[in-house]
Amino acid sequence: MYKVKELIIVEGIYDKIKLSRFIDGMVFITNGFRIIKNKEQMQTLHTLARQSGAAILTDSDAAGFKIRNFLKQQLQDCDVKHAYIPDIKGKEKRKTQPGKEGLLGVEGISDDLLLKALRDAGCTIDGDSTARRPARAITKADFYADGLTGGPDSAEKRRAVQQALGLPGKLSANMLLDVLNRLFDHEEYTEFLENLQNN
């Protein structure tokens, strides 16, 4: 069992069951979109997130990103980390058909990938914080200079970066920038891009 300090926010009960098999920590269920209209539940979530910080771990489909963006706005004054699962085609064992977008949700992702997502987000696992504070952050200007924004093929280049890192394809440029700053310092980022272009 891995002890996670932050409150982990997931969409459904099956996500919580999956995590409880290998995570020792608090897991909060949004019940999908119900969190948006349930002010009492949102207040409880806000209180918990202010106490220990939070890690949002939603599915990589459109619904998951809508829930993530809602939570991001509601928890602006809390220490919120974003854990992303990769786009993996398939269906969960308990379902007869895949979801609308044909992607696995949190409950269908391997334990190792979920743990990696939490580590990459900067969660404190077994007392060790994986959060990074780079000497020089990657900026929007770097993204522009490297062709990841502002160019005719920028979306393609960002998609290549996302695929290489096992990130969902629906990440906005700003979200990708945030993730890269958690994974790399500027020098490592430059080296990563060079290696990606050479392959």
Describe the structure.
Residues 5-90 form the Toprim domain. This is DUF4093 domain-containing protein. One of its GO terms (molecular function) is ribonuclease M5 activity. It is a single chain. The chain has 199 residues and is α/β, with parallel strands linked by helices. The chain folds into two domains: 2-129, Dna Topoisomerase Vi A Subunit, Chain: A, domain 2; 140-198, no CATH class. The protein contains nine helices and eight strands. The strands form three sheets. The chain has a four-stranded parallel beta sheet, with helices on both faces. A two-stranded parallel ribbon has the order 1-3. The protein is globular, with a radius of gyration of 17 Å.
User: Using only CA atoms, what is the Rg?
Assistant: 17 Å
Percentage of residues in helical conformation:
40-55%
Look at the structure and give the CATH class of the largest domain. Answer: Alpha Beta
Strand content: 5-15%
The largest beta-sheet arranges its strands as 4-2-5-6
Reading the helices and strands in chain order gives EEHEEHHEHEHEEHHHH
Which stretches are poorly predicted, pLDDT < 50 over at least 5 residues?
none
What would CATH call the architecture of the largest domain?
Answer: 3-Layer(aba) Sandwich
**The number of domains:** 2
What average pLDDT do the residues reach? 92
How many helices in DSSP terms? 9
* Number of beta strands: 8
Annotate the secondary structure layout.
Blueprint (H helix, E strand, L loop, with lengths): L1 E2 L3 E4 L2 H8 L2 E2 L2 E3 L4 H4 L1 H14 L1 E3 L5 H13 L5 E3 L28 H11 L2 E2 L2 E2 L10 H6 L8 H12 L7 H11 L2 H13 L1
Parallel strand pairs: 1-3, 2-4, 2-5, 5-6
Antiparallel strand pairs: 7-8
